[in-house]
TrEMBL record:
The keyword Transcription does not apply. One of its GO terms (biological process) is methylation. GO terms for molecular function: methyltransferase activity. This is Class I SAM-dependent rRNA methyltransferase. CDD domains: AdoMet_MTases. Keywords: Methyltransferase, S-adenosyl-L-methionine, Transferase. It holds the Pfam family Methyltrans_SAM. Residues 73-220 form the S-adenosylmethionine-dependent methyltransferase domain. InterPro entries: Glyco_hydro_b (IPR013780), SAM-dep_methyl-trfase (IPR019614), SAM-dependent_MTases_sf (IPR029063).
C-alpha cells in the first residue's frame, strides 16, 4: 500500500507559524500559542517567538502541565471560522485549543466525497466539539454526532448555533461510540459516510472503557456494516498511538474487501508557514467509493 501525506495549509484563522526544538508556534485568530511538539525534531526558523501563552508540560509524558499566560486571553474562548463553520477556540487543560486544526483537509475531503450525493446521512463518532459534523451539515448532510462527553456535545451545539446551523438536521447524542455503532448495526441502519476520530483511551457516559488498540478492529467491522456499495466514505484518524499508517490501512482494506472503492492510508500533517515543511500530527486510513 502506497502511503499518502495529507497536508493542512494555513487559513485565515489558523496557521502553524514556526516549529522546532520540540515545540510549535501557532496562530488561532488574533492569538498565538506555543505548545510542546515531539515531532518537531528540527531547529525553528526564528529564535524569537512572541506568544500570548505557552503550554508547559508536566513531568508526565501523557498528561499534566499548564498554560502560562504572557498576555490576557479570553478564558471562555473566542470565535474562529473554517469555511462557513464558526466555532469557539479556547485554551484547554489538555494542551489543545478545543478543536483540531490539522483535520481541515479531512473536512474538505469528506465534503468532496458527498458533492454529488442527494440528502446524504453521515455519522461522526467521537465527534468532540463538532467542527467535522458542522463541515458536513453546512454542505447539506444529515448528521448523527456521537460523543461520550455532555460538555463536548454542549460545545458542539453552541458551535452549531454560531454557524447558523441550530436548525440543521443533526442528532446530537451523548453515547458510547462503540455501543451506539453496535446498536445501529442491529437496527439495520446505513450511512453514506462515517468519520471516526477515536482517542487512545476514553470512557463512555456510563463508564464503558475504550482502548484503541483493543477495540478499534471491532468498531471498524461495525462501521463497515453501516456502509454499503452506495455509501461514499469512511475516514479514520489515529493520534499518539504506537501504530503505523500501514497497519490501520491494511485493517481497513480487509474490512472493506467486499465493497467497491479504494482504501488509502498515510500521515496527516500541517504546513509550517515559515518554511513550508510539513509537521506530522496523526496517521489516517480512509475508504472511498
Ligand atoms: C476527538 S477525540 C480525540 C481525538 C484526538 N484527535 C486526540 O488527540 O486523541 C476525543 C473525543 O472522544 C470522546 N470519547 C472518549 N471516549 C468515548 C467513548 N467511549 N464514546 C464516545 N466518545 C468518546 C471524548 O469525549 C472526546 O470528545
Amino acid at each position: 500500500m502506497q502511503l499518502t501525506t495529507l497536508i493542512g495549509e494555513p487559513w485565515r484563522d489558523y496557521a502553524l507559524l514556526d516549529s522546532g526544538h520540540g515545540r510549535k508556534l501557532e496562530r488561532y485568530g488574533r492569538h498565538r500559542f506555543v505548545r510542546p511538539e515531539g515531532q518537531a525534531l528540527w531547529s525553528p526558523a526564528s529564535d524569537d517567538w512572541q506568544a500570548d501563552a505557552e503550554f508547559v508540560p508536566g513531568s508526565d509524558e501523557e498528561g499534566g502541565g499548564q498554560w502560562k499566560f504572557a498576555r490576557s486571553v479570553p478564558r471562555d474562548g473566542w470565535e474562529l471560522g473554517w469555511q462557513d463553520v464558526r466555532f469557539i477556540a479556547q485554551t484547554t487543560p489538555f494542551r489543545h485549543l478545543g478543536f483540531f486544526p490539522d483535520m481541515a483537509p479531512v473536512w474538505a475531503w469528506m465534503q468532496g466525497q458527498l458533492s454529488d450525493a442527494t440528502a446524504p446521512e453521515c455519522l461522526n463518532l467521537f465527534g468532540y466539539t463538532g467542527v467535522g459534523t458542522l463541515a458536513l451539515a453546512s454542505h447539506g448532510a444529515r448528521m448523527v454526532h456521537v460523543d461520550a462527553s455532555k460538555k463536548s456535545v454542549e460545545g458542539a451545539r453552541a458551535n452549531a448555533r454560531l454557524s447558523g446551523l441550530a436548525e440543521a438536521p443533526v442528532r446530537w447524542l451523548v453515547e458510547d461510540a462503540a455501543k451506539f455503532a453496535g446498536r445501529e448495526v442491529r437496527r439495520g441502519r446505513r450511512y453514506d459516510g462515517i468519520l471516526l476520530d477515536p482517542p487512545k483511551y476514553g470512557r463512555g457516559p456510563t463508564g464503558e472503557v475504550w482502548r484503541l488498540e483493543e477495540h478499534l478492529p471491532a468498531l471498524i467491522a461495525d462501521c463497515r456494516r453501516l456502509l454499503d456499495a452506495e455509501s461514499r466514505f469512511l475516514f479514520l484518524t489515529v493520534y499518539a498511538v504506537r501504530m503505523s499508517a500501514l497497519a490501520i490501512g491494511e485493517m481497513l482494506r480487509q474490512a472493506f474487501a467486499d465493497l467497491p472503492g479504494t482504501v488509502e492510508a498515510g500521515e496527516l500533517a500541517v504546513r509550517e508557514e515559515a518554511r513550508g515543511l510539513a509537521l506530522p500530527t496523526a496517521i489516517f486510513a480512509r475508504w472511498s467509493r
